[in-house]
């Protein structure tokens, strides 16, 4: 029993440390097995009416890039199919970088999902520029 308590304490300490690092509350941190599971979980939740103002619905837009791994495409395709939202893509330059000029974001955009660093090409996404848009 003591070992279980120590494990729980370590787990919750890790949750608190991560929350502090990313500027979140401890109860906003969820641990998953991997990115695939996390992306599926987020996409599923955003399609549920209980998501409130965060819910993705008909008339909304989800944006991904042409660089994405299947794990970051399928959940969003499925979400758009379920909800009637539109899926749009940032194209890629000849140099293998996200072409920020290829897509103008508008108020219908609810989600922009992109990989920070490609496991295929090693390209690093321009996170600050994508977030500013």
UniProtKB/TrEMBL annotation:
The keyword Transferase applies. The keyword Transferase applies. SUPFAM superfamilies: PLP-dependent transferases. It comes from the Bacteria. One of its GO terms (molecular function) is transaminase activity. Coiled coil: none annotated. Pfam families: Aminotran_5. Keywords: Aminotransferase, Pyridoxal phosphate, Transferase. InterPro entries: Aminotrans_V_dom, PyrdxlP-dep_Trfase, PyrdxlP-dep_Trfase_major. Residues 2-132 form the Aminotransferase class V domain. This is Aminotransferase class V-fold PLP-dependent enzyme. It comes from Metapseudomonas otitidis.
């Amino acid at each position: 029993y003591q070992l279980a308590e120590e494990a729980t304490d370590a787990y919750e300490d890790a949750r608190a440390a991560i929350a502090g690092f990313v500027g979140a509350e401890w109860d906003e941190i969820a641990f998953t097995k991997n990115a695939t599971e996390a992306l599926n979980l987020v996409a599923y939740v955003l399609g549920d009416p209980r998501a409130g103002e965060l819910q993705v619905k008909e008339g909304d837009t989800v944006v991904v890039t042409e660089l994405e791994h299947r794990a970051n495409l399928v959940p969003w395709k499925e979400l758009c199919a379920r909800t009637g939202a539109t899926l749009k893509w940032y194209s890629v330059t000849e140099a293998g970088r996200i072409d920020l000029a290829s897509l103008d974001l508008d108020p219908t955009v609810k989600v922009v999902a992109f990989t920070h660093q490609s496991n295929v090409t090693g390209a690093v996404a321009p996170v600050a520029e994508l977030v500013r848009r």
